[in-house]
Amino acid sequence: MRRAARAVSDTVIARLPSPVPGRSVVLLVGAGNNGGDALFAGADLRRRGVAVTAVLVDPDRAHAGGLAALRRAGGRVLAPRAWELSPQVALLLQRADVIIDGLVGLGATPPLRAGAAVLVTAANAADGWRIAVDLPSGIDPDTGREAGPVFRADATVTFGGMKTALLFAESAGVVEVAEIGMVPADAGVDADARMLTDGDAARMMPGPTAADDKFSLGVTGVLAGSPRYPGAALLSVGGAVAARPGLVRYAGPCAADVVRRWPEVVAVPDVSQAGRVQAWVAGPGMGTDGAALAALRDVLATDAPVLVDADGLTLIAQAPSLLADRTRRGLTTVLTPHAGEFARLFPDLDPGGEAGRLAAVRAAAARCGAVVLLKGHRTVIAGPDGDAFVNTSGSPYLATAGSGDVLSGLAGALLSAGLDGLTAAALAAFRHGRAGERAAAARRAGASALLDHLD
Fold it and tell me: Which of 55, 198, 290, 356 has its CA 20 to 30 A from that of 427?
């Protein structure tokens, strides 16, 4: 607990303007260990010259050791009994340089009780920095779902490991993981989900060796585009080329446009002429008419891994047997819907519901026997066995027409290189997100800019 408290106080000190002595911090303290972390952090801050006042929601259940430590250090303690916010507490919060949220911990579910809700509402209206201990009070500790007032943190200091809820909670702010000697894996705790780092992505990315040729590096087939949407073909093919497979084959009505932009691509007018393909991307901009359905059937009838996106997902929603046949054969299929497409495919599963986004995607993958990648601010990828990734890279610059086409091509190329469906989708989402971040930093808008920023 003292290590956790020091991590919180260090985060506070890093945000306080100089000089630190004389700055003010208010602790919002609930019962149990979460409140204890806040109290010990307050004691440490008081020893570093900060004026600290603790506001206790439940004085009789406040952490005794933390409370004693704060008092020994010279901190003030307020224990109001009525929860019509007193003028004294309101003024303290408004004048505080930092407000630390230690109201509730991992054992609590929203909504907050009346006393805590009053304090959180007042804290959110104040001007100081807001720092949450372990997780912001008011969010669901498993899903990040918000119900009622929620402490809107500028930063959250969490302990031992990342909590799944913090990946989805918009109120968490910047999340800092403090290593305090408590490693979940050592305690026999399985990870709820996985998230990639840049180091992971570098290790996982397939690369050529002296023994490779264009076929051993992967042959990616792309079925995309139409006379109405030729750009979808160019963006999907571009995403595939950027992943550096050995060969990209395009099959569709935009063959001439594709070769003009990507002369290294082998382009033919239909799937039957494509030749050897080790993984397919199907769907972006291809339309939903009879011809598009026939072409999608041809691709799904192959034994190669297939990624289905956009119009391909609409066709599968209309004819679920297309996917069921591949599942019966045990073939790899990856579906990459956005929220609207997910709703058409799985109308009874609500990613925004009480069970949460991760649970909905896991249920969808288990039901259809495919890897499901649900795009969004936090893209979630799950396999039929429940293994899942939450993607943490990205930028609002990715919310643009054609961005998903680039992602589909990138993921399809990784499939053709031999990565399993879950890994290929997770790695593609991570790299796509990093490309969006670079495009944002360069102030380059549009999906085409992503192709220039895929490393």
Answer: 356
pLDDT, residue 190, reads: 77
114-125 helix and 87-95 helix, angle to the nearest 10 degrees? 40
pTM greater than the 0.85 cutoff: yes
May I ask the CATH architecture of the domain 198-452? 3-Layer(aba) Sandwich (3.40)
**Do residues 35 and 17 lie in contact, with contact meaning Cβ atoms separated by under 8 Å?**
no
Residue 129 in contact with residue 15, Cβ under 8 Å?
yes
Domain positions in the chain are 2-187, 198-452
Sign of CA dihedral 399, 400, 405, 407: negative
Tokens of 175: 């999340």
Q: Is the distance from CB of 299 to CB of 336 less than 8 angstroms? A: no
* Low pLDDT (below 70) residues in the chain: 81-83, 182-189
Each residue of 388-442: pLDDT tens digit? 999 999 999 899 999 999 999 999 999 999 999 999 999 999 999 999 999 999 9
Query: Are 337 and 375 in contact, with CB atoms under 8 Å apart?
Result: yes
Judge if the upstream peptide bond of residue 320 is cis by omega within 30 degrees of 0. Answer: no
Contact 103, 57 (CB under 8 A): yes
Please state the three-class secondary structure of the chain as a single string.
CHHHHHHHHHHHHHHCCCCCCCCEEEEEECCHHHHHHHHHHHHHHHHCCCEEEEEECCHHHCCHHHHHHHHHHCCEEECCCCCCCCHHHHHHHHHCCEEEEECCCCCCCCCCCHHHHHHHHHHHHCCCEEEEECCCCCECCCCCCECCCCCCCCEEEEECCCCHHHHHCHHHCEEEEECCCCCHHHHCCCCCCECCCHHHHHHHCCCCCCCCCCCCCCEEEEECCCCCCHHHHHHHHHHHHHCCCCEEEEECCCHHHHHHHCCCCEEECCHHHCCCCCEEEECCCCCCCHHHHHHHHHHHCCCCCEEECCHHHHHHHHCCHHHHHHHHCCCCEEECCCHHHHHHHCCCCCCCCCCCHHHHHHHHHHHHCCEEEECCCCCEEECCCCCEEECCCCCHHHCCCCHHHHHHHHHHHHHHCCCCHHHHHHHHHHHHHHHHHHHHHCCCCCHHHHHHCCC
360-374 pLDDT, tens per residue? 999 999 999 999 999
For Cα atoms 209, 215, 217, give the angle at the middle one, nearest 5 degrees.
40
Place of tokens 């799904």: 300
Radius of gyration of the chain (CA): 26
CATH hierarchy code of domain 2-187: 3.40.50.10260
